[in-house]
Amino acid sequence: MMRYIFAVVLATLSITAVQAQRMLPKQNGLEINAGMLSKEISDNYYLNLTLTVNGKNGNYWIWGAEYTHQFSGYRDVQIPLETYTGEVGYSLQLMGDARKTVTLNAGLTAVAGYETINRSEAMLPDGSTILDKDNFVYGTGGRLTLETYLSDRFVLLLQGRTKVLWSTDLKQFRPSAGIGLRFNF
Question: Signal sequence span per UniProt (predicted)?
Answer without folding.
Answer: 1-20
